[in-house]
């Protein structure tokens, strides 16, 4: 080996480490810049692993022969060039005290947007380090580490539904930025200090107040302050911060499941080793873990495990606007309550309106502190006054107010604000559009209080030149299931093109943006997406008195418009291979979204057209739409497979299965053809959900080829089967009784049962596990229930569906939480031979089990305690047990040789209450 070659390679590695370490330090230095792009954060998080690999390589390079040194030299040089370019990009996002910083920051974002440059550079570096691994510089342990890093990134991508850091930045920007002096009062508030300083006794702070009191911005300020603490403590790695902002108008962030996904995402992004708790379940099922019907239960167990992880030091968890958690609020509150006694290192802050239901669930105790904003009127009023002082000063500069006018406006706002930030913000937004000469006259026309102000705003909309157009926009934004983009908004209603507005409105987004700005300050626009300025604004529009003004023909009419328009949009945009993937084997993880995205304008329509149809199903025109001659059947016959492909590209096939099932549940008494098609479409989708999810173009290949010959979907779209598939497999003529094969057990299945509500299936197997399944989609519900050490022979649900019981050859009976899959201890022990059958009593209070030890045993279903005596009388193994409908008797069956021995006429009955055999 040449010593010079070794020195050269070691020098290259050392130089590369310096460059990458420098890039990481540059990024860390930019930490004060709010809202760094997610791609920047993901890249920066992966740099330490690259450095670790290179340092390992540096230590081993001197032992390599000259051939290997030469082979890796070019790889190192290539890697260094990419790292230097990455360093330059990071350099541009450091905040500096000069007027050019924001220009450099925006330029860096443009670089990111053109070809995902930062991500591409990191991918190149990643591949180079993988090549070093393949050259055996690191050994098998590091190779596995590199692979694990890649799998972790995919897991995080599937976990992420939103990045709360981006939501925080959006909220702050939408509200005009955060003013430090408007929130610092709380840092000295006695309730806040009690929560912050009392490490064990006060774990939860509930900040509560009426709409518009500034709760969200208050929490943004608290987060900033705690982030300073976390940054100071980060050197010792002893402080983490995770937060989430609920928003009722956005389906992505208005559920308890979304809250947990966001909180877990932030924690695992900061402390990657915590991701192992997610991976334990994720590796077995993939992204279904986060979206199936039991996602809440799996995620709550994962989050509890993370919060109890001994490696987790002090952690702050903050949730804003709990009253806007539309789905699963009670579950979320219960979960928070359950964490307090078992997670002493975790402190919570939550905020909400003054809802009695939230107060009742929280059951305020010593561990919980309330901060009522209405009881801190002086502090809030002072903060609002500071806000008014600053914002009016800014307005006066822009509008060139005189000192006298500025003072008069400030005084009016201060006298009428009633300690309500939102009222001030709305008035100031209106003043932005008013000429200076009439500003004082107009400001005095704004009435005190949010309700009266909203009423005046809607009256102004009604009197405006664009009244009809503005009301139409408000009605659509109020009804949609999530905030929509300007492109989606203009697409969803034909009337946006026909009223007194520019003819090219659909093509000129700037004109539409101006029109949205005329909607009485109810709406705001952020990154081309339309939002309500506050949840109370949407609530106001939907209340009965106002809705008659906005929804002239009723909310049903708006839902029907969105549904009908969605069919038209999808019919225009959807086509086979819409992303031009070409190869049917390309998986969803390999798909790159094209620019421009042909699905951009129809994303909303693809996901929610059926929901809007269901909301207006009793309308006469909707009934016509559902007939055999109507547009629904026409759309499905032409575009059903294209729609499935689009759902796959949108990673929403499971949601599609549920949508089709909802559609099938409608009444089609006079529409046999459309009903038959929808029924066949459900069978087709359920059977092929997994493969279409994995590879979008398989909707036209294996899904069609393996469908029954007489399948309506197959016959309708048979022309879509690729011509290169010349020899088609033999398949059944019709769909058989089998809806779907549920695969997961590794050995024979011995017992299955439906939950009482029909939403779950449970199965027991000789592989010693019990498994649960989503009955609608067939997706496995994790985790698998593990605990038995021998074959599972019998499973059953409790009458209320909350428990599962299983019996096994290991002589035990076990209980499980049907929602989470958690074992309910203790195991029920008492049999001396194999358990063959288990059952719940009709009232769910008792469990009965039969065994080869010839006995029948009863157990308390709540505690697992045995109920004596054991029921004896059989002379051979008991093979089956069951309860009578009134719960007073149960028949038992045993095998004697090859004969069935059945007593009491045909059966032997055992008294349920006394455990005695009843005479014949």
UniProtKB/TrEMBL annotation:
Signal peptide: 1-22
Matches recorded under Pfam families: NPHP3_N (PF24883), SesA (PF17107), WD40 (PF00400)
Coiled coil: 54-96
Stretches assigned to the NACHT domain: 203-362
Gene3D superfamilies: P-loop containing nucleotide triphosphate hydrolases (3.40.50.300), YVTN repeat-like/Quinoprotein amine dehydrogenase (2.130.10.10)
Protein name (Swiss-Prot/TrEMBL): NACHT domain-containing protein
InterPro entries: NACHT_NTPase (IPR007111), NPHP3-like_N (IPR056884), P-loop_NTPase (IPR027417), SesA (IPR031352), WD40/YVTN_repeat-like_dom_sf (IPR015943), WD40_PAC1 (IPR020472), WD40_repeat_dom_sf (IPR036322), WD40_rpt (IPR001680)
Placement of WD repeats on the sequence: 742-783, 785-826, 828-869
Source organism per UniProt: Trichoglossum hirsutum
Protein origin, superkingdom: Eukaryota
Record keywords: Coiled coil, Repeat, Signal, WD repeat
